[in-house]
Design goal:
The complex is a heterodimer of chains A (295) and B (234).
Chain A (H helix, E strand, L loop, with lengths): L2 H32 L6 H17 L5 H24 L7 H23 L4 E2 L4 H4 L1 E4 L2 E4 H23 L1 H11 L1 H6 L4 H26 L2 E2 L5 H14 L4 H21 L7 H15 L12
Antiparallel strand pairs in A: 1-4, 2-3
Helix pairs in contact in A: 1-6, 1-9, 1-10, 1-11, 2-3, 2-4, 2-9, 2-10, 3-9, 6-7, 6-9, 7-9, 10-11, 10-12
Chain B lengths: L1 E10 L2 E11 L4 E6 L5 H8 L7 E6 L2 E2 L5 H6 L2 E4 L11 H8 L6 H14 L1 H5 L10 H13 L5 E5 L7 H16 L3 E6 L2 H7 L2 E6 L2 E7 H5 L2 H7 L3
Helix pairs in contact in B: 3-6
Classes of the chains: A mainly alpha (295), B alpha/beta (234).
Chain lengths: 295, 234
């Protein structure tokens, strides 16, 4: 394989890694604050593509407006799910909200099938994003570059939000100690709703980037990206944002490089990803960047 | 300032507080003493809205606060330094202190209070960028008190501030509490260290298995035979 082709795969892997990373951060952020694996996250991801799709085709919005519309409605959906399905169970045993999350996932998939139909729909990709650049023999699509640029901007904003704002401070406080956070005057419900809003916005953004890359959407499209990103979050150490990003990168790279170097083994990529998960957890049970429980 | 009337609290089927009533007057240091499991922490947690009250009335600054959300109660001007300090180990000393001022938006005044806390606890200033979890027990207690003061409370409640600390540090903590009181804060203190608490308190209540069995001025209780026998080691 020539260095050019390798570089091309590398760039592809990075861009896919960012998408997985963004989804994985959605899982890890919510888990970090409420200690709940939001199994409906992959389905919120799927819904975002349909919101954009219908914004564009049904409501005849300009594409950019459809994207914003999709993100906003997805945020409302994510916050609504928390309000309806998770908040009433917050003081119940952990297993109850886990079951609620799994149920929510199936519910969304099936409602989507009824409402949108089970057949695949074509997601509109603006022509400007399918342009191919040739840089020193490496052929890169505009969407690949756009994915990387958007992801980097979003990650910088997210870092700022968590490290430098009051809401971020409240989220970090809540992630270790609910009662003491309350004593600081933190409004727990509002902070958790905000966390779900951020998680859903990340799901929407990654879903749009995903659909621009693989422009077919259907009600079960969120299942595998969701599972892979969840795996990425676990590999990185659930609760850790850097870990989720790293895990996402790892999976993006494995997926792309596997297809590039061992095309005959490409069908086994999910098996390989899960083997990777098991091996990493055997060596480091808290994930690569996971911290030991201090209390 | 704080009035607790006929407080009844349950843990499942266990009747933890059986009709407790007491007052905390403005500008005073009031202590609740009693053995482990007497219901001291439960009392404070109920006042803050962290534990549901089944029956009874809690009034703060003439307003009913029974079973209100904790963040509203804190906003009304009281705060609790919880048992075991409960500082945020993953946040820096400064971030911990700023969380204390979470409900405030008066930047200049926050800066002033931060300065005040730093003069009360010079050690915290030295360690301002260190993670809370890396502090020693005594420093964590100072941080927990400093963090509570950052909300500029009128009523400061402390749950076992001397627990698990070396005797020298215990003395320091009590000194700080006295100092904070002199700055005009009303204090409600819970202690197993009855001697230290009674020396400090203007008025004290003795709690036994969910009931108040004795009350009186601090020095009165210090000389009370029953208290001497049960809590002061003879």
């Amino acid at each position: 394989m020539s260095p050019d082709v390798f570089l091309q795969h590398l760039v592809n892997g990075i861009s896919l890694g960012f998408i997985f990373g963004l989804i994985a951060i959605g899982y890890t952020l919510v888990y970090g604050v409420v200690k709940l694996v939001n199994f409906a996250h992959g389905d919120v991801f799927m819904m975002a593509t349909f919101f954009v799709f219908y914004g564009f085709t049904l409501f005849m919005m300009p594409w950019w407006l459809a994207v914003i519309f999709g993100i906003v409605v997805t945020i409302l959906l994510g916050v609504g799910i928390e309000r309806i399905a998770y908040r009433p169970l917050r003081d119940a045993p952990r297993i109850s909200s886990l079951c609620a999350a799994i149920g929510m996932s199936f519910l969304i998939q099936n409602i989507a099938t009824v409402v949108f139909g089970g057949r695949q729909k074509s997601f509109y990709v603006p022509p400007s994003l399918t342009t191919t650049f040739v840089i020193g023999g490496v052929r890169i699509q505009a969407i690949t570059i756009a994915t990387i640029v958007v992801s980097v901007i979003v990650l910088l904003l997210l870092t700022f939000l968590i490290k430098r704002t009051k809401m971020g401070l409240a989220m970090r406080a809540l992630s270790v100690d609910f009662d003491t956070a309350k004593l600081m005057g933190i409004n727990v419900n509002r902070t958790i709703a905000f966390t779900f809003a951020i998680g859903s916005a990340l799901a929407a953004l990654s879903a749009i980037l995903w659909a621009l890359r693989y422009p077919q959407i259907w009600p079960f499209m969120g299942v595998f990206p969701g599972w892979r990103a969840f795996t990425a979050a676990i590999i990185g150490g659930i609760g850790s944002i850097v870990g989720a990003l790293f895990g996402g990168f790892m999976l993006g790279m494995v997926t792309i490089l596997l297809v590039a170097f061992f095309p005959e083994a490409a069908g086994y990529r999910d098996a390989i990803i899960f083997v990777l998960l098991v091996v990493i957890l055997l060596v480091k049970p808290t994930g690569l960047f996971g911290e030991k429980k201090s209390r | 300032m704080l009035k607790v009337a006929n407080l009844n609290v349950y843990y499942g089927g266990i009747h933890a507080l059986k009709g407790i009533s007491f007052n905390v007057e403005e500008g005073k240091i009031v202590a609740l003493i009693g053995a482990n499991g007497a219901g001291k922490s439960t009392t404070l947690r109920s006042i803050c809205g962290l534990k549901k009250v089944r029956e009874g009335e809690i009034t703060f600054k003439s307003e009913a606060i029974t079973n209100k959300p904790t963040n509203d109660i804190v906003k009304s001007g009281m705060t609790l330094v919880p048992e075991g300090r409960r500082i945020f180990p993953n946040l820096t000393v400064t971030e911990n202190l700023m969380l204390g001022a979470f409900l405030r938006n008066d930047g200049d005044e926050i800066a002033k209070d931060l300065e005040w806390v730093n003069t009360l606890f010079p050690r915290l200033k030295e360690r301002k960028d260190q993670k809370g979890g890396t502090l020693s027990g005594g420093e964590q207690q100072m941080l927990a008190i400093g963090r509570a003061l950052m909300s500029r409370p009128d009523l400061l409640m402390l749950d076992e501030p001397s627990l698990g600390l070396a005797p020298v540090i215990v003395g320091e903590v009590f000194k700080v509490i006295r100092k904070v009181h002199q700055e005009g804060k009303t204090i409600l203190l819970i202690e197993q260290n009855a001697l230290g608490a009674l020396k400090l308190a203007d008025y004290a209540y003795v709690l036994e298995t969910g009931r108040i069995v004795l009350e009186g001025k601090g020095e009165e209780l210090l000389n009370n035979e029953q208290v001497k026998k049960s809590y002061l080691g003879g």
